[in-house]
Specification:
Blueprint: H1 6-12, E1 18-23, E2 29-34, E3 57-61, E4 66-70, E5 106-110, E6 136-138, E7 142-147, H2 161-178, E8 186-193, E9 205-211, H3 216-232, H4 236-247, E10 251-254, E11 258-261, E12 270-276, H5 288-308, E13 315-320, E14 334-339, E15 341-343, E16 346-347, H6 352-357, H7 366-375
Antiparallel strand pairs: 1-2, 2-5, 3-4, 3-6, 5-7, 7-9, 8-9, 8-13, 10-11, 11-12, 12-14, 13-14, 15-16
Helix pairs in contact: 1-2, 1-5, 2-5, 5-7
């Protein structure tokens, strides 16, 4: 469950990647991250396209004290196109896409159909004021797409540590950039993978959201971490990590900078958290060594998850980072990887208890889930023993 330094040294040889910013035909930002050798051909977006005018709002649910985004314009977004019409593949003479160049490594661009609109772009109404029951504000924010490879059929687990290192660098860069946009309160990097999860584009990609509010789950973490500090004098995240390491029954993988474990109260049939051993609030606060070793342990966890069942592994990768303006002193960056697969041919659905009450029931004990993950036999490359 440990990794040597070979993988990290291979990634370090080209780290960090070259960053090339440009623009799309409708004015949206497009950023190339280059991690391969040789000249990079960056072509101008020659499409004749008009900007989409978002109509995002955020409404406050006074019953539970949470904000809900409303984005009616997203009903017209591209939905499961055939491979030869994928908007995330490189442009060809037959089909123009969001990627004007004939090939690319990693790209980041503004979503054409964002859940939250850039400040000043939304047609949403002005705030309704201090109405405690029906409060609505413009859905100002930022939504970006991160493409991991030009290979349409690849999975995240197919990528090598160099490419995952580039993706991590892009996540860190964009978290830093979005954190400086006025009005944004939280940055969330995530990956939806698999048709069962509900992806609308099969091409390997992730997303980054800049929210105009602190999300409910993060707000709860901040609140409980503050309460724990007041009661015990300790850090909630750090004490949980220490207990998991001491117990060991739920540890899945580890290296000098990161520890992967199934949470004590895991909600999902297959769920792993990856914590840095050092407290940092977000990805920009990690150092080069931490980012390099993260690539190997992330890939190992993905391979282990895919090896649990002889079936597809629909999964979500979610980065939990400190909010931009509050709770940063106590927060501890961590990644959550979860799957709705509970058995071959069976999925975990969010039915009555989960959807109606927010009360999860997990049919697999976290300890047995961790043992299943540890029992998966990996090749040396999959386990991080060599690049």
């Amino acid at each position: 469950m440990t990794h040597d330094s070979t993988t990290a040294s291979r990634v370090a040889s080209i780290f960090p990647p070259e960053v090339i910013p440009t623009k799309m035909a409708d004015g949206r930002d497009l950023i190339y991250y280059v991690d391969t050798e040789g000249p990079t051909e960056i072509l101008e977006d020659a499409r004749d396209i008009s900007p989409v005018i978002p109509a995002s709002v955020a409404r406050y649910d006074a019953l539970v004290g949470e904000w809900v985004g409303i984005a009616g314009h997203r009903q017209t977004r591209t939905y499961l196109p055939p491979a030869n019409q994928c908007p995330l593949c490189p442009t060809t003479p037959e089909f123009e896409t969001e990627m004007p160049s004939p090939d690319y490594d990693v790209t980041v661009f503004e979503n054409r159909f964002p859940s939250f609109a850039p400040i000043g772009a939304s047609t949403a109404p002005e705030p309704l004021g201090a109405d405690a029951l029906f409060m609505e504000i413009p859905g100002n924010g930022r939504c970006e797409v991160v493409c991991f490879t030009s290979n349409h059929t690849a999975l995240v687990s197919d990528l090598n540590p160099v490419r995952i290192g580039t993706v991590i660098q892009a996540w860190a860069d964009r978290t830093e950039a979005l954190g400086h946009i006025p009005g944004l309160e939280q940055v969330f990097c995530f990956i939806n993978q698999g048709a069962e999860i509900g992806v609308t584009l099969a091409h390997p990609h992730g997303q980054i959201y800049g929210y105009p509010f602190v999300t409910p789950k993060t707000a709860a973490m901040v609140r409980h971490a503050d309460d724990y500090r007041a009661r015990t004098g300790g850090n909630l995240f750090g004490d949980i990590l220490d207990r998991e390491i001491a117990d060991g029954s739920r540890i899945v993988a580890s290296n000098e900078h990161w520890v992967a474990f199934v949470p004590f109260a895991a909600r999902w049939p297959v769920e792993v958290s990856i914590y840095p051993r050092r407290q940092v609030p977000d990805l920009p606060a990690t150092n080069a060594a931490e980012r390099l070793t993260l690539a190997a342990i992330y890939l190992e966890v993905m391979h282990r998850m895919e090896g649990v069942f002889d079936d597809t592994m629909p999964a979500i990768t979610a980065w939990h980072q400190a909010p931009v303006n509050v709770g940063r002193e106590e927060f501890w960056l961590h990644m959550q990887i979860l799957s709705i697969r509970r058995a071959p041919g069976k999925l975990k659905y969010l039915a009555g208890s989960e959807s109606g009450m927010g009360a999860f029931v997990n049919d697999i004990t976290p300890e047995s889930a961790a043992q299943r993950l540890r029992d998966v036999v990996l090749t040396p490359t999959e386990s991080g023993a060599q690049a």
